[in-house]
């Protein structure tokens, strides 16, 4: 496995980082809020491409 692939985060890592459930992380990925790529059928996330926060401001 290449160094780049090992540096990518799993959906579990991302959910823990943002304090959300895996289901919510998956939904935010599908909606484009969390940029990811699918590798071998699993979402992977580059840490530098993730937003600092996923909380939306209320209008």
How would you describe this protein?
The protein is an alpha+beta fold and 59 residues long. It has one domain (3-48): Orthogonal Bundle (Arc Repressor Mutant, subunit A), CATH 1.10.10. Helices cover 37% and strands 10% of the residues. The chain has three helices and two strands. A two-stranded antiparallel ribbon has the order 1-2. A hairpin with a 2-residue loop joins strand 1 and strand 2. The N and C termini lie far apart (45 Å). The model has no long low-confidence stretch (mean pLDDT 87).
Task: Break the fold down into its secondary structure elements and pairings.
Layout lengths: L2 H5 L3 H8 L3 H9 L6 E3 L2 E3 L15
Antiparallel strand pairs: 1-2
Helix pairs in contact: 2-3
Count of helical segments? Answer: 3
Task: Estimate nothing, just give the exact number of structural domains.
Answer: 1
| Spatial arrangement of strands, main beta sheet | 1-2
Query: Pairing-aware structural class of the strands and helices?
Result: alpha+beta
Give the termini distance in whole angstroms: 45 Å
What is the string of helix and strand elements? HHHEE
- Runs with pLDDT <50, length 5+? none
Q: How would you sum up the major sheet? A: 2 strands, antiparallel
Question: How many β-strands, per DSSP?
Answer: 2
Helix content: 25-40%
Q: What is the global morphology?
A: globular
Q: What fraction of the residues are assigned to beta strands by DSSP?
A: 5-15%
Query: What's the pLDDT, averaged over the residues?
Result: 87
Q: Nearest-angstrom radius of gyration? A: 12 Å
Just name the CATH architecture: Orthogonal Bundle
The CATH topology label is: Arc Repressor Mutant, subunit A
Q: Indicate the CATH class.
A: Mainly Alpha
């Amino acid at each position: 496995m290449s160094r780049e692939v090992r540096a990518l985060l799993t959906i579990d890592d991302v959910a823990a980082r943002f304090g959300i459930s895996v289901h919510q992380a998956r939904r935010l990925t599908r909606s484009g809020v969390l940029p990811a790529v699918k590798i071998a059928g699993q979402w992977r996330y580059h840490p530098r491409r993730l937003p600092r926060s996923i909380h939306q401001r209320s209008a």
